[in-house]
Amino acid sequence: MTDKEYIDLCIEMAKENVISGNGGPFAAIVIKDGQIVGKGFNLVTTNNDPTAHAEVNAIRNACSNLNTFQLNGCEIYCSCEPCPMCFGAIFWARPDKVYFAADKAEASRYGFDDSFIYGQITASIEERTIPFEHIISKKLFEPFELWKQKTNKIDY
Amino acid sequence: MTDKEYIDLCIEMAKENVISGNGGPFAAIVIKDGQIVGKGFNLVTTNNDPTAHAEVNAIRNACSNLNTFQLNGCEIYCSCEPCPMCFGAIFWARPDKVYFAADKAEASRYGFDDSFIYGQITASIEERTIPFEHIISKKLFEPFELWKQKTNKIDY
């Protein structure tokens, strides 16, 4: 299948997700060596999970199927440009490439305004709509020191 | 319990997570009306899930316990400043406030360099280390149009 065909498959899946009533108009797939190794739909309201975006679900599904926490050698196709949460998830999963159909501006025409969160990420702590407070604790380095000293750890 | 006590609890949980070998040195809790309603540990390598950060897991756990996809009225305490993925998850979950112990700079001293992903989010598509490609499809608006027309949908 071509990149365009994979993208159109994501778009069809996104339509199915709306029609079935399972969630928002978003879907994603993960491809490795020409095979679909992961699928994800937006299931926020069905699963009561605000992190259950299509890309996060596709990454989790692919990692489960491939028995790994890293998607090197994989490509992710999304019906829409990833939001900051999914963008972060993609960078932690480390696929080789990401393809998307609708971009942020196109999605925002339908009320999906991820650009708000993109703006919040670059805003200073004082400018954020959700207040963030840095609490100083003498113990704050202790988990990191334990991690540093641990010999049999799995780096990720 | 005070904010400082909740933060110290997160730090103790983060230490437990390293000692048990379950994952990285991170933990988070969700508080509502003075009660712990959600807990999360970093379980990336144990669960084979790159999205299984402490904050994401705490949000998922709280939403599951409270049977909701929105954490209004809740506060989230984290042993470390959230990465961009967790930051996005927090903005979708919409808690009232976030408290954290170690900040990004402190975490980066131990090799947890979330600032790399923060930089990637603000970088242009051409500057990203993972290539992103916008694929144009005539169908790209179809899922959104279905969503717009749907009368019995749950907004999120």
Q: In words, what does this structure look like?
A:
- The structure is a homodimer of 156-residue chains.
- With 156 residues, chain A is α+β, with helices and mostly antiparallel strands.
- The first copy, chain A, has 7 helices and 5 strands; from the N terminus they run αββααβαβααβα.
- Chain A has a 4-stranded mixed β-sheet.
- In chain A, a hairpin with a 2-residue loop joins strand 1 (27-32) and strand 2 (35-41).
- In chain A, helix 3 (54-66) packs parallel to helix 4 (84-93).
- The longest helix of chain A has 18 residues, at 3-20.
- Chain A is globular.
- At the A-B interface, helix 1, helix 2, helix 3, helix 4 and strand 4 of A face helix 1, helix 2, helix 3, helix 4 and strand 4 of B.
Task: Give keywords.
homodimer, about 160 residues, alpha+beta, four-stranded mixed beta sheet, 7 helices, about 20% strand
What's the quick description here?
The structure is a homodimer of 156-residue chains. Chain A is α+β, with helices and mostly antiparallel strands. The first copy, chain A, has 7 helices and 5 strands.
